[in-house]
Amino acid sequence: MSAAPRRKAGAHTLALDIGGTHIKSAVLDARGLLVAPPVQAPTPRPATPARVLRVIAGLAAAAPRFQRVAAGFPGVVQDGVTLTAVNLHPAWRGVDLARRLVRLTGRPSRVANDADVQGMDVIDGQGVELVITLGTGVGSALFLDGRLVPNLEFGHHPFRDGRTYEELLGDQALKRIGTRAWNARLRAAIATLRQAFTCRRLYLGGGNARLIEKPLPHGVRAVGNISGLLGSIRLWADARTVPRPVRRR
Ligand code: BGC
């Protein structure tokens, strides 16, 4: 992955992708391009707010200069407050993460669900578009004409035999059944999801998207996990510094 040249003007954003296995960070320029290659640190265990914030403090301190923060979080987020975090720790319930990030970095901060953030980078803004992220957990994001329905959380809905998409397609299942059987399961899930949402496009992201066997059905695309960082610039899209749309394809 190549780093974009540094721009002189415009706010730089510290992008954070908080995951169940890794916490990634990068600084993006005003157009949403990487200022330097992303870095990552293992998610601490137990992944309590204090411990995760300590890791973020380290990443922020090592990052190039930035004027604002945008973070994707692996759970339900409302107005910057985290309400669930199945793959982190129960203590995340009711944490004002946006405020904590402001305190930690001294910069204005915005937070949204990680799948929602990844979706913001990959959608093309037309019709119904569904994003499923495959990583430690299974994330989901739904868009209509580019507008997000936040916190869909479809990963916790039943898929087969009373078990959820996350139970059957998350990291633990992948390790248990292997890539081949996981891909077969994923095909079945893709068919069900497309039927349920009649989506124009279905994007498959998250760290395990790289294991998806090709070809994929028409309208279904695997996307790079870097979108989990790049999409966070959209959280600041109402700030006039980010022209719409940010496109790199
Ligand atoms: C969480 C989602 C998240 C997904 C991927 C799930 O367990 O409930 O909010 O998007 O994991 O991190």
TrEMBL record:
Pfam families reported for this sequence: ROK
Top-rank taxon, per record: Bacteria
Protein name: ROK family protein
Organism: Eiseniibacteriota bacterium
